[in-house]
């Protein structure tokens, strides 16, 4: 699932995001595919974090591909 967010809590710190790029999650099995999809969809490589480093009520951490709990977050930080 794509989530458009202005900012997100990563390891307790508020990190500003580029809103035009969604936050996605992937399980380890689908990580490579999701990285490829992100590059194909947005022509940019995402920043990646461990899903467990992402805080936030209402953040849907399921893998975009299979719906299993996501292990890796794909997003674009402002200024990166
Ligand atoms: Zn998956």
How would you characterize the largest beta sheet?
3 strands, antiparallel
Radius of gyration: 11 Å
- Quaternary arrangement of the chains shown? single chain
Distance separating the two termini: 23 Å
DSSP summary: helix tally: 1
Kindly report the average pLDDT value.
Answer: 94
Largest sheet, order of strands side by side? 2-1-5
Low-confidence stretches: none
Proportion of strand residues = 25-35%
Q: What share of the residues lie within helices?
A: 10-25%
Protein name: CxxH/CxxC protein
Organism: Brevibacillus fortis
Pfam families: YyzF
SSE layout and pairing:
Layout: E1 7-10, E2 13-16, E3 24-26, H1 31-42, E4 47-50, E5 54-55, E6 72-75
Antiparallel strand pairs: 1-2, 1-5, 3-6, 4-6
Bound molecules: zinc ion.
Written overview of the protein:
- This is CxxH/CxxC protein.
- Pfam families: YyzF.
- It comes from Brevibacillus fortis.
- This protein has one helix at 31-42, and strands at residues 7-10, 13-16, 24-26, 47-50, 54-55, 72-75.
- The model has no long low-confidence stretch (mean pLDDT 94).
- The termini are far apart.
- The chain has one domain.
- Strands 2-1-5 form a 3-stranded antiparallel β-sheet, with no helix packed on it. Strands 3-6-4 form a 3-stranded antiparallel β-sheet, covered by helices on one side.
- With 80 residues, the chain is of the alpha+beta class.
- Strand 1 (7-10) and strand 2 form a beta hairpin.
- The chain is built from 1 helix and 6 strands.
- Bound molecules: zinc ion.
- Zinc ion (ZN) binds at residues 27, 29-30, 63, 65-66, 68.
């Amino acid at each position: 699932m794509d989530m458009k967010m202005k900012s997100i809590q990563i390891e307790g710190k508020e990190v500003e995001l580029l809103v035009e790029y969604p936050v996605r999650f992937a399980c380890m099995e689908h990580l490579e595919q999701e990285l490829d999809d992100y590059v194909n969809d947005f022509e940019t490589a995402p920043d990646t974090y461990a899903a467990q480093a992402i805080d936030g009520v209402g953040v849907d951490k399921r893998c975009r591909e299979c719906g299993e709990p996501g292990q890796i977050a794909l997003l674009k930080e402002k200024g990166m």
